[in-house]
Automatic annotation (TrEMBL):
Name of the featured protein: Glycosyltransferase, catalytic subunit of cellulose synthase and poly-beta-1,6-N-acetylglucosamine synthase
Pfam families (alphabetical): Glyco_tranf_2_3
Transmembrane segments: 12-34, 299-321, 327-349, 361-381
Keyword annotations of the record: Glycosyltransferase, Membrane, Transferase, Transmembrane, Transmembrane helix
Highest rank taxon of the organism: Bacteria
InterPro entries hit by this protein: Nucleotide-diphossugar_trans
Family affiliation: Belongs to the glycosyltransferase 2 family.
The keyword RNA-binding belongs to this UniProt entry's keyword annotation: no
Amino acid sequence: MITLFNWLFSGLLILIVLPVGVLFVQVLLAWLPARSLPSAKSSRPRVAVLVPAHNESSVIVATLNTIGPQLLEGDRLLVVADNCSDDTASLARAAGAEVVERSNDRQRGKGYALDFGVRHLASAAPDVIIIVDADCQISEGFVERLATCCIDSGRPTQSLNLMRAPAGSGLKVQIAEFAWCVKNRVRPRGWARLGLPCQLMGTGMAFAWRDLPLIDLASGHIVEDLKMGLDFCRSGKPPLFCPDALVTSYFPRSEEGLTTQRTRWEHGHLGVILGDTPKLLVESMAKGNGNLLAMTLDLLVPPLALLTLALVAALGLSWLVFLLAGILAPALIATTGVLLLAATILLAWSQFGREIISFSALMYAPFYAVKKIPLYIGFLLKRQVEWVRSKRDDN
């Protein structure tokens, strides 16, 4: 009986430690010099930039002002004012954008807004459609780099998507910025070193128009970007990471905005991990789809705070079992996982996080993880399954 328990408990701990191994490999590969994308082979394609917006009057003009100057004759800039009760639509028109308004209380969510915008664009379809969220700023040359990369590769293309901590933010938001950097910059860069695909990140995404029938945009899925990336990969179009194009936004200053945003992201991610990854693993191995397997392994890595909590809990339980029953293997596995995670985080911080957070502030991360326990309890007791917009700082 003890031997059976040893095997079962050790197997469970290996499953918990597996995501740490994936994360370590990604961070280690990211340390290598970034792979240069090949020079553009094609001329710049005709582009439509689609901006879904729900009550974004406080930020929409600033966003459009970064997009407009990068567009050429024949390009389109379309704002979908989705179920808006403010003046988002009129402000967008005044800023020079084409605007369509959508009102549907039953079908709420970004996916429905994107589908509405795509159907509007179909009358004069572009070569490439780029999706930019209404609260984002794009870097110089963003449109040309992303659109050309998409056309030349023949694959959906994801820009580098970073979120910044507003000036004067506390340690909690600084740690969140570092965790975001690891997720959206370090990990995709590591996988790209092996020629592997990245997840789609919701904003700064480019798709060839001819590829849009491969996915179903009209969805209220809480993490529609993850779903789209996996659907593209299943169809032989694994998303490509394009770090030369940068899109940025800011974390909300308000506690309410932060909580809403984190709950949507993390409950959605955890829901996909529990609901989809087993069948994705089976499908990818059965079909010999290495790109889908790589995306699934990446998907298995939970938020850093949850990974930390799970490993610490496993460490304590495994050593308790050792003290009570003398079973050592699980304790060694859990200890290895904790040490590997600590080494991975330090490795990521030393190369990519020094400008974001100090080493002393990074030491606060375990306490930050503890404060997120109610969020994960909420996932078990009352999981968020519908899309909810994050509250902006001034509305």
